[in-house]
Amino acid sequence: MRPFVFTQAQNQEQALAAAAANETAKYLGGGTNLIDLMKEDVERPSELIEVAGLGFQEIKSNQNGGYTLGAMLSNADTANHPDIRRHYPLLSMAMLSAATAQIRNMATNGGNLLQRTRCPYFYETSMPCNKREPGSGCGARNGMNALHAIFGWNEQCVAVNPSDMCVALAAIGAKVQVQRVNGTTRTIDFSDFHRLPGDQPEADNTLQPNELITAIELPKPAFSKHYYYLKIRERSSYAFALISVAAGLQIENGTIVRAGLAMGGVAHKPWKLTRAEEFLTGKLPQTKNFEQAAELAMREARPLEDNEYKVEMGKKAIVRALTQAYEKNA
Amino acid sequence: MKNTTPSGTGNPIDRVEGHLKVRGMAKYASEFPVSGKVYAQAINSTIAKGEITAIDTSEAEKQEGVIEIITYKNAEKLKRYDEELPSLLPDVIQPVLQSPKVHYYGEYVGLVVAETFEQAQYAARLVRFEYRTEEPRIHLDRQRSDAYKPEESSDYSRGDVAAGMAEADEKVEVTYHTPIEHHHPMELHAIIASWENGEVKAYASQQMIDNAAITIANTFQIPKEKVRVIAPYVGGGFGSKLHAKQHVILAIMAARKIGRPVQLTVTRQQMFTNTNFRQQNEQKMQLGAKKDGTLTALVHETLSHTSTYEEYQESCGTVSKMLYKVPNNKVSHRLVPLNLQTPFAMRAPGEATGSFALESAIDELAWKLKMDPIEFRIKNDTQTDPSNNKPFSSRLLTECLRIGADKFGWERRKMKPGAQQEGNWLIGYGVSGASRAAPYRETSSKVKLELKGGKVYATIQMDATDIGTGSYTIITQTASEYLDIPVDQVSVELGDSLFPVTPGSGGSWGAASYANGARVACMNAIRELNQKLNTDEDLSIQALLEKNELSSYETTGTAKPSEAFKKHSVYSFGANFAEVWVDKDTGMYRIKRMVNVGACGKILNPKTAFGQIIGGLTMGAGMVIAEQSRIEPKYGNFITRSFADYHVPVNLDLANIDVVFLPEEDKIANEMGVKGIGELGITSVAASIANAIFNATGKRMRDLPITPEKLIMAEPEPDAI
What we know:
Distance between the termini of chain B: 69 Å
Number of helices of chain B: 18
Helix content of chain B: 25-40%
Structural class of chain B: alpha+beta
Number of domains of chain B: 3
Largest sheet of chain A: 5 strands, antiparallel
Number of helices of chain A: 13
CATH topology of the largest domain in chain B: Aldehyde Oxidoreductase, domain 4
Strand content of chain B: 15-25%
Shape of chain A: globular
Radius of gyration of chain B: 27 Å
Mean pLDDT of chain A: 96
CATH superfamily of the domain at 226-328 in chain A: CO dehydrogenase flavoprotein, C-terminal domain
CATH class of the domain at 226-328 in chain A: Alpha Beta
Strand order of the largest sheet of chain A: 4-5-8-6-7
Mean pLDDT of chain B: 96
CATH topology of the domain at 226-328 in chain A: Enolase-like, domain 1
Shape of chain B: globular
Low-confidence stretches of chain B: none
CATH superfamily of the largest domain in chain B: Aldehyde oxidase/xanthine dehydrogenase, molybdopterin binding domain
Distance between the termini of chain A: 53 Å
CATH class of the largest domain in chain B: Alpha Beta
CATH architecture of the domain at 226-328 in chain A: 2-Layer Sandwich
Oligomer: heterodimer
Largest sheet of chain B: 7 strands, mixed
Structural class of chain A: alpha+beta
Low-confidence stretches of chain A: none
């Protein structure tokens, strides 16, 4: 690992100021991804600013009926919080499917939003990767791409976002609160937080330099009865999703009044299935509607050479997740 | 008078060194507090084939703490291979940093030595290499025309397979693929090396102490007596620590160069590129049988690869020569040299992969015959090894299958795939037969007896290793039994080249060889003490010492295979059963139950033996679930570089496991009736699971691992639906 300066910020202002003073500094939360990447020489910050001790560890209910999750709270404490289990069980289920108990204990909510792709070309510094080294090319585009994107990719980058938590947040429709150096805050819609590679594959999200995530806002609970997070993976734990689907249904008088649907393992960002959500709204929770929603969702899939299977698997996964969500409390 | 002590062999006592391990007091190679030691970090090539054209060490040299940087330019000249493609054996030489040539991605090209581990790691990143790159040969499939026959014994045949196929009523002609797998023991390969007065001392994580000493001595061209290798505890090996690898040579070279002890730990990432692997195999099978299930022909042709600088052949076809009575049999092995490191023995080399092909093909043929796969196997069972006409010393394959079937509830199996369903799950049952040679090798040990406070204390010494298998415990139990003293009066000291020579841990010969080696030393002590008294009275060891007026006594003993052993085929046998639930839509599946029945001679300690089988079953399940190291098609490196992406099974992947040992004492195998067990456990596990997946889905999965992506894209066999 390269030598770096370790700064323990005493408060938020210090953290923001330290970050503003050094453009190659990085905030350190749980470190479960960043430290690994530093060991691999992929991330090379000259300074780590520890933010885990700054507070932002609470889960609060809001006046609008929603909840706010502190950015520095651990994934384990968030997923197991009684209010989250009761009101946002979809989020809890997705978070508990991620990584291992040890990693979930360390990983923070803010850090989870920032975890980087697991593309092997990104991890291996001797191979080309536009995300790691802009302009070096994309090794995976015509290399080994079974684990890569089927939506939203381009010649620059075919990597996928590895998070489970973020798939559920996309389905639920969360917002991200950030703090800026000048003391002001801003709120980013979850669907605008992560980005597609475009001509800047090195940027995973729309955070501005030095901005610090302080909280995640959840809207009023809608899917506490009918929800399911389906994660298809090679082994039962400690494996990233080949495909995952977060499905939430709000059913009134036997009709779907609201659907939240997002996929993981398919794109550079958590992939919200807006057309399928719209299609399902007002429909009956029946297999044929679920199948039609899946067809709609996968219509624009563009598989790469090695990941044709994701199209078939994706359809099956959407239908299964919706069915499980419906039957969960039917 | 003698009493049979309850602590002797056959009892499930706890590991005698267990308390040291759980308290972190058992010292592994990199944990010895050698004073003045410094740290080394090896540097890997970033091309798969070519030559180093320039090296810039200037930036690295400037860093704090850096002591030395070694590349081929300033490395000590070592003994080099004097022939092309020498066989990779456990006592082979291991020259390193001897030329600018690069043979595979990740080959060691340099070493940085620094005061601290962190300094060495950082500086190693700063050494710049320039290369002239050549197109690497890394595709088994594309390079198949280069296949060659490695040795005469690579081919075997009996009878006439064409005639045998012609008289068959049902035939199977299919090809199976198994990927590159890595050993990945928990403990990283590591060494602390020092030179003193022209002698090497190496704390090194090695399975075979004597072979490591030979490799070191021959590579540096010094007498073996001037090499001491110490490995009291080894955190697993699975074959990867059978020989001293290049990092061992690197550390010793560096220690000599700088005149200080050097610690070198191979990183987990380097364990993909520098500590060998199980190679990829393409196994083409042809089987024929008559309507009544009599096998008429069996052909097993294997294509795999070796490196461009050493030769290693895994004999996948071994199992097809001897497991079933088939008059017409042909087995062949071909190798393609590739720009990858040399493959090397990984748990049950040949059997683990060969049994996947054979036992899957047997299941395919049973299905075509519409015959129960257990009955089909039993129909072709034999008590004579058809490959050499020697009788088996003992063979309970039929009993393993029958008892396993009973235990598993095989009668509930439906022959037609997909006939058992629960919700979204398709339920399948699978079975496979297993065999693994039970070798036994010459083993020496020393026993030291001490009479203290009216009790006899015994210490057994040998250069054997305990790689997590339970060697300490079974040797303790053996000495306890043959000296007739309680286990807590026995100490065992292992893993030091100063102790008597054993074959080391590998090839499933450890338990039989070590136990018999200890037995002979103990019996020698009793015999010699009796001779001194000129008595044949049945005296206790304490009485013998007392009557001899001795407070201590020591002697040695050597056990070796008998003439009867050589006249027989000596194998362990087993059967595996698996119940697998396959999701009808998503490609996911769960192994719900596994039953393993083994007939592997006398079980010295049911507890450690159980652990061995559990480990084997887990590794066998790993072959099916996800284990594979894929080669990047352009760059030739492994794209799986950590435990996050090299998937071994997790606890959740394995549900209920039942292990049964059939009572058996094979006195032809050796005096104590012990046979190998460490590798039997992994053998044919993969086939039992793949066969269960067929029984659930009608899909024949002939390409390991069976991942959700493969399963979802596979079509059921036309005759299975």
